[in-house]
Amino acid sequence: MTCRVVQPLALLVLLVLLAPCAELSAQPRSDADRYDDVFRKATKRHFGPAFDWRLFKAQGMAESNIDAAARSHVGARGVMQLMPGTFREVASKNPELTRIDDAASNIMAGVAYDRRLWEAWARDSVETDRLPFTLASYNAGRGTLLAAQRTARTSSLDPRTWANIERVAPTVPRWRHAETLGYVRRIAQLHGQLDDRGRVMNGTTSARGRRAR
C-alpha cells in the first residue's frame, strides 16, 4: 500500500521555516547515517515507497541521536526509544523482529508503531495534520492526544486540527505538553537539516546540540 506524505510534510516545512536559516552544504557520511538503509526499508514496508523515509530518521535523531545503546530513565531503549512492552507487542505481529537492542529490529518496530498510529489518526485528524498527531502520539500516547481533543471540543474548537491542539495543550491535565510540542517541532527541524540523501548538512546542529562539521 502506497501512502503520500506531500501535505503533512508541508506542515513540517512551515515549522522549519520558522527557525533561523544557515548556509548549508552536504555532510560526508557519518555514524548517524549507518542505519539509513534500515530506515528506507522500514518506511517502504510500512508506508510505501512514496513516503519520505527521512522523517523517521529525523525521529530517530530526536529520540536517541541514532544511538542503538541509548536507554532512558523510564526504560525506553534503542534508536527509536521503545518501551519493552511496545516492542513485544509490535514483534508479536512481526516475528522477524528479534531483539529490542538490535538496531535494525528497533528501527523496524518503531516505524511499524508509527504506522499503527498513522492509521489510528486517519479519521480523527485532518489529512494535512495527520503527521504531527502521529508523532505526538508516539511521544505522549494516543490517549493523551484524545484527551486534548476533548478539551478542544469543549472550547468549541475543531479537535482534528493540530493548531487547535497546540492552543489548548497547556490546559490538558497531566500532559507534559511542552515536551510533546517541542518533540514534534524538533523532528521538523531535524528533517529540514537532512539533504536529499538523508545526511546532516553543514551549518546545522545535531540532535544533541552539536554543530555539524
Structural notes for this entry:
- The chain is an all-alpha fold.
- It has a single domain, classed as Lysozyme (Orthogonal Bundle), CATH 1.10.530.
- 51% of the residues lie in helices and 0% in strands.
- It contains 9 helices and no strands.
- The protein has helices at 6-17, 36-47, 54-64, 84-92, 103-120, 130-140, 142-154, 162-168, 177-192.
- The chain is globular.
Describe the structure concisely.
With 213 residues, the chain is mainly alpha-helical. Helices cover 51% and strands 0% of the residues.
Low-confidence stretches: 17-26, 209-213
Count up the domains: 1
Output the helix-strand order.
HHHHHHHHH
Query: How far is the first residue's CA from the last residue's CA?
Result: 39 Å
Beta-strand content: under 5%
The CATH C-level class name = Mainly Alpha
- The biggest beta sheet, please? none
Give the arrangement of secondary structure elements.
Elements: H1 6-17, H2 36-47, H3 54-64, H4 84-92, H5 103-120, H6 130-140, H7 142-154, H8 162-168, H9 177-192
Helix pairs in contact: 1-9, 2-5, 3-9, 4-5, 5-6, 6-7, 6-9, 7-8
